[in-house]
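User: Please predict the structure of the protein below. I'd like the answer in structure-token form so I can feed it into my own downstream comparison script.

Assistant: Understood. Taking the following sequence of 368 residues as input:
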Amino acid sequence: MINVEPPVPGAVRITLQAPPNFTIPSYCIGGRYPCVFWNADAIRFPDDGAGVAFFTTRVSSTNFAPPLGCDFSKAQSPSDRCFFDPNSPNVRSTTFLPMSFIGDIEDYTVMIEHSIRGKITSIAIRNGLLEGQLLSHNGSVIRTITNATRMALNPRADGDIFTIKELLSAAGANLDSPSSAPGANKTAHESYRNSGIVIVIVIEYKNDGKDIDYKYIPQVIDGNEYKAIERIYNSTDGSITLKTAEFLVEFLMLWVLPEKEFYGIAKFQETDSFDEWRKNKKQLEKQRSTDPNVTNVNRIDFYDNVNTAGTSNTNNRGVNIGGYYGINSANYNDNSGNNGCYYSNYANIGGYYNPQQIHLQINPYISM
């Protein structure tokens, strides 16, 4: 049995950092909402960095006080007068923070760390030791990432650093453009800064037989938006503070890939069992000894047409083999005549095409 494996996606870690010097952008002056300036920890949710992050663009915060003698946490039924309903006339609300944009969000920087590993082999390497590229949504190269460029940008950084503006631009997105989200107010020309936006960033790995490199490929998911509500209970007075967030940016690592059935096939390609081959061969030899019509023992041999490693041959299953053991041999392509190509029919083994995806979802943050 022969196994050929592409790199397996490892961990992805995302961190956010505020700009060293804030600027006051034009949307903060005389715009729809005022701006507040927060540090990175305040606008990010959650903060563990394990492949998922939401970055805030719009925020508000409102406290809801219970009716006299009530505690929202002790309501015994939905009809209980102490049941929390923010729209109830019996619930008193106090706005802590009116609807506001996060100032200078485009100048925050995101650092992305990711790694790949082998499932059978001992390969394990992080992106800080590899070369990569940031591509635009139309495929052109925006930036080439090498050890030299990392050192020039930040010699202490462990990953690749981008501004949010750079990632938005690569995806062809602008927060001040009219939103395409179904819930956006088209009459008022509601912007992405207000409604939110979703961007998917695919991390594509490739091994040319010598080096492994990768590409970031961003793309806007048209019509998507995101809003979350964080509920904070105050045990002192029984009140509740709702932080309703429509996040500016969400980074989400996707382990379930599109066309996952094809990637599952591509993970490992197994030959027929040699035990079965030997069994069939013995059966034919036995038949040949008793049946004069059976003369070709090798007619079911799985490797009838395979010669030497590094050459392209076709076995009885119609699969193209590009040499499993030859150094710099042609890549394996499932049901393809494109010997040497690293991508074919969504199933690529040997060319090491293995994308990871990160969602960059840009949505406002409202705190109620």
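That's the full token string. Residues 262-345 form one domain.
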